[in-house]
Input
Amino acid sequence: VQLQASGGGLVQAGESLELTCAASGGVFSGDVWGWYRQAPGKQREMVATVSSGGLTRYEEFAEGRFTITRNNAKNTMLLQMNDLKPEDTATYYCRTRRVYSPRYDYWGQGTQVTVSS
Output
């Protein structure tokens, strides 16, 4: 399985971006997709996750500003980010993980988001 993240860029504070993650290869229902980010000098942190059934979770900083969705038929996941802030600047990674057989844990290559003040 390969994950391809795209949609990053340079925006000003208050603007929006939509990130896309596309999976090629065999993924199965019952997995959890998610977006994570890593800023320079900081640890990677979760942004939001979505289960195959559509159950979503958000970190506090993303709640109300970011929306995660997935299309199981197309094996894609989106992250709509609104009202971006300079502290959202990071490399954003997508991930798909399945804890039941067949188990897997795949990461995409990351897409850079830079928010200027």
